[in-house]
Write a structure and sequence with these properties.
4 helices; mainly alpha; 123 residues; flat; Helix Hairpins
Length: 123
């Protein structure tokens, strides 16, 4: 094996590959991400159907990215917590609850943004 370091570009491409692998793993194995992805798909279809503005698209895409990213971080925290302390522990439970709370907060914000965008078009 060579001691030569890979170039910056090769390292970035490897990082993208690992990130894609992680995202694909989440989408295949985690029900919460599958639900978020289904909702994201539905609002994306709605965005095309209702011909939302560029600004509305920006907010919608940002909220989809926020919720799914926080969901992925929540899942990571759960994996780490379970690895560190597999048995029930009150502090581990609290850590998991706080991480889930972050997803809840982001999801509420996303629902508010969706309501602002779609309520006038639906009613």
């Amino acid at each position: 094996m060579s001691n030569k370091k890979d170039s910056f570009l090769v390292n970035r491409l490897k990082s993208i590959g690992w990130a894609f692998k992680g995202a694909w793993f989440l989408l295949r194995t985690e029900a919460s991400i599958q639900i978020q992805f289904s909702i994201a798909t539905a609002v994306t279809i709605a965005g095309f159907y209702f011909e939302i503005s560029k600004t509305e698209w920006l907010f919608q895409v940002a909220m989809i990215g926020l919720v799914m990213s926080i969901e992925a971080v929540n899942t990571s925290i759960e994996y780490i917590a379970d690895f560190i302390h597999p048995e029930f522990h009150a502090n581990i439970g609290r850590i998991k609850d706080v991480a889930a709370g972050a997803v809840f907060i982001a999801s509420i914000a996303a629902v508010i943004v969706a309501a602002i965008i779609y309520y006038p078009r639906l009613f």
